[in-house]
Amino acid sequence: MTRHFSARQLTIISLGICMAAIWSVQNAQGTDYDWAYPGSANYPTWNDTNNWTPLGIPNSSSDTATIARPGVSPSIPLTIAITSPVTVSDLTINNTSADSNGFTLGDTDNAGGISR
Q1: What is the pLDDT of residue 56?
Q2: How far is CA 54 from CA 3, 32, 77, in A?
Q3: How many domains does the chain have?
Q4: Dihedral (C-alpha) 76, 112, 35, 90: value to the nearest 10 degrees?
Q5: Are 51 and 44 in contact (CB under 8 A)?
Q6: What digits encode the pLDDT tens for the residues 21-38?
């Protein structure tokens, strides 16, 4: 038995296929994350969704992560703890602080690390 579709049904099916294709392309592009940790504590965690904008964790071969550290008081070096393996396509670190203190991305319990 052969099934025949009306023009309207074919249009709906075609629209559904196009929407699925667009959705998959958007998801393949990854997300651009910015460090949003507001505090001055020395050991914030990479793997905390609240430390990133948009809310989430950069951990995909198509995600990018940008960490910018504005001047904080007291001026201390910033160590970001990585508690599980992380993969990003691009990592940018900007130190806009007036002092010479910088960054450390640390594997605090031998469970983490960053790969590309």
Answers
A1: 93
A2: 46, 8, 25
A3: 1
A4: 120
A5: yes
A6: 665 555 568 899 998 876
Asked whether residue 16 is domain-assigned, the answer is no
Q: Is residue 58 classed exposed, middle or buried when 0-12, 13-18 and 19+ CB atoms within 10 A define those classes?
A: buried
Which residues in the chain come in under a pLDDT of 70? 1, 10, 16, 18-28, 38-42, 69-77, 95-116
Residues 6+ apart with CB under 8 A from 33: 52, 53, 54, 56, 57, 58, 63, 64, 65, 66
Q: Report the candidate in 114, 103, 116 with the shortest Cα–Cα distance to residue 47.
A: 114
Please tell me whether residue 60 adopts helix, strand or coil conformation: coil
Domain that holds residue 37: 31-115
Q: What single letter denotes the amino acid at residue 115?
A: S
Amino acid at 35: W
Q: In a 3-state reduction of DSSP, which class is residue 43? A: coil
Rounded to a whole number of angstroms, the CA Rg of the chain reads 21
What pTM did the predictor assign? 0.62
Pairing of strands 64-69, 90-95: parallel
